[in-house]
Amino acid sequence: MPTPDPRVDAYIAQAAPFAQTILNHLRAVVHEACPEVEETMKWSFPHFMYKGMLCSMAAFKAHCALNFWKAELLMGDAAQRDAMGQFGRITALEDLPPVAQLQAYLQQAMQLNDAGIAPLRTRTARSSTVTLPDDLQAALAQLPAAQQHFAAFSPSKQRDYIEWLEEAKTAATRTRRREQAVAWIAEGKARNWKYEK
């Protein structure tokens, strides 16, 4: 058995007691099914590698998640779930499939990696046209420079501002974001201008 990654040990130790039980169980199942597996941390949670990504597990405040990298190939439509992984929000060992089923998924995932089969990636087609919310349109109309810059933005840059505005949970937040957006747009700045090089 490969040496356990101490970062995974630390991750499990920091999890809530209910999550520690689940994570330790999942880790043991993965190692039993795939003795050659390598542990690592990616995106701040444990991943298991076997000739590429195999699966990952994560703990949250009230649930855990198990995610197979090639879930769509393993489970078809059943792989689509609301939580981060394919088995929904795992709050107890009883929420997981039987060990034999998990090991079967792991064996299939290993075979896919052995064969070099890539995960399915479906892209959703986005329209190149953007629907401007009335309040943003009115705010831009009051400042011609902002209106000109916004019209010159690509649809994706326009969409970044619109989505940011529409994700606001309160009217006050939406107003604050709209005012900030118009100020940045007037300067010709994209929504994520701070991160552009």
TrEMBL record:
UniProt domain YdhG-like: residue ranges: 20-110
Gene3D superfamilies reported for this sequence: 3.90.1150.200
Transmembrane domains' residue ranges: none
Coiled coil: none
Database matches in Pfam families: DUF1801, OmdA
Name used for this protein in its record: YdhG-like domain-containing protein
Organism: Duganella fentianensis
